[in-house]
Amino acid sequence: MSLLILGLLIFLGAHSLRVFADGWRTRMIARFGANAWKGLFALVSIVGFVLIAWGFGLARQQPVLLYAPPAVLKHLNALFTLVAFVLVAAAYVPRNHAKAAIGHPMLAGVKLWAFGHLLATGMLHDVVLFGAFLLWAIADFVVSRRRDRRAGTTYPAGTLSGDGATLAIGVALWAVFAFLLHVRWIGVNPFA
Hints:
By secondary structure, the protein is an all-alpha fold. It has helices at residues 2-14, 17-20, 22-32, 34-60, 71-90, 97-102, 105-120, 124-151, 160-186. The chain folds into two domains: 1-62; 64-192, no CATH class.
């Protein structure tokens, strides 16, 4: 469990700099340059992600059951995850209504993904992993929305073609992950 927690601290810590140390982050970018900062950020993120994956795998070998969710919540999680994939796609597809409405659809997607997994799983390692991502996404979303309001940030209006592309990409990525990659990478069939 310690590797999982260390990985979460590194990964989510790096992704929380704009939340808790935006001024310091801005000074470091000015000092080292945007490309060097992005390289360092990517390296730290990869290290954190590897530790999360490794630590989660180790923690699964010594499971501690906290609660036993009913089967219906596992099916509900599949729906939450589908919507989460569409929201993440909305962060990258230009001119869609989700981005126009909420500004930070990736964070909304992470919140939904983490919440759904907390409902569907009841092991301690699951609660640590998904709980940490849920708390991080909530905090980052709130801070990002406040920053947008202070700066007067507006996002381009959504279009039907942007919505269609967002939906198609999100559903396609979800289907590939849910039906093929989740079992291979995570070792869990989300529909079993």
